[in-house]
Amino acid sequence: MQCLLFKIGFLQVDVWDLFDILIVGLLLYQLYQLLKGSIALNIFVGMVLLFLSYQVFQALGMDLLSSILFQFTNLGFISLIIIFQPEVRRFLLLLGTNTLRQRDSFWSRLLGKEDPTLDATEEVEEIRRAFLRLARSKTGALIVCTRDADPETIISGGTPLNANISYGLIVSIFHKESPLHDGAVVIENRRISRASAILPVSENTTLPKSVGLRHRAAVGVSEKIDVGCFIVSEETGKISFAHGGHLERGLGEKRLTELLNAYL
Ligand SMILES: Nc1ncnc2c1ncn2[C@@H]1O[C@H](COP(=O)(O)OP(=O)(O)OP(=O)(O)O)[C@@H](O)[C@H]1O
User: Might you give the EC number(s) for this enzyme (predicted)?
Assistant: First the structure.
């Protein structure tokens, strides 16, 4: 079905061409957002240049060169999937969980159900109080919250707890004398599943130089799975939050409560 919009010389542009360009542009933008700051972006740019050169050489009729580049770009697609395996995994995971969340909230709204993020108030209050206390005393802390991501393959080690969320427990875990204070506390479906866990550290080069291992670990795990990470800096007492590979620093009390409600 052709719906001609306009002509530029011999080029006929129809509605589907516009959709085509729009979708490709959107996908490239999402890909750029995903790879921004990682070394994978340089590899991706290299592959795009290779593909564009192939197109140019082919258009110029330089058969030998374009057939060599054709083999490279063909192989390139498979090697891209291998090289970008963590990014592809992250992209699909984020896509899947966001779609599921949107679908759930659509049905909840339609059936007049309460927003599930509002049920968490009691636990949110416990964590909020604990974080404010830890921030006041400049005690370093790192908490990973997840509802439906499976952290087993990404988060390693730690001591299993399977405990209720409570102000006292969180403050005690991160107390400097506690044997569990090193590493991260993991909260799965509103229960503390383990403490002292080790997270993958982000290699994002755009993070500020002042960001140390605790913050990098929070960003690192949020790059790989759908989690919200809350951090208290031992150095400054500031509270930060990492999600989807992005770090939001210096949270106020209101913003902290908002994010806890959304991610617990
Ligand atoms: N991979 C990791 N997984 C979990 N926790 C980690 C990891 N790496 C470091 N940490 C925690 O971070 C602490 C070190 O923090 P570091 O001072 O390097 O980070 P920072 O981001 O500068 O934080 P702060 O502002 O609190 O100093 C370690 O003692 C440990 O508890």
Answer: 2.7.7.85
Instruction: Verify whether ligand 1 is closer than 6 Å to residue 183 (CB atom).
Output: yes
Task: Check whether residue 87 and residue 202 sit in a common domain.
Answer: no
**How far, in Å, is the centroid of ligand 1 from the Cα of 222?**
15
Ligand 1 centroid to residue 35 C-alpha, Å: 24
Q: Which residues of 39-60 are buried (b: 16+ CB within 10 A; e: fewer)?
A: ebbebbeebeeebeebeebeee
pLDDT digits (tens, 9 = 90+) for 104-128: 555 655 555 545 444 558 899 999 9
Tell whether 140 and 85 lie within a shared domain. no
Atom in ligand 1 nearest the alpha carbon of residue 140:
26
Domain coverage including residue 211: 118-263
**13-17, 106-110, 127-131: range with highest mean pLDDT:** 127-131
- Secondary structure of 4-51 in the HEC alphabet? EEEEECCEEEEHHHHHHHHHHHHHHHHHHHHHCCCCHHHHHHHHHHHH
Phi-psi region at 9: left, alpha or beta (left = phi > 0; alpha = psi -120 to 50): left
Mean local confidence (pLDDT), 182-195:
93
Residues 90 and 34: beta-carbon distance below 8 Å: yes
Distance 79 CA to ligand 1 centre (A): 34
How many domains does the chain contain in total?
A: 2
pTM: 0.66
Separation between Cα atoms, residue 218 and residue 262, nearest integer Å: 17
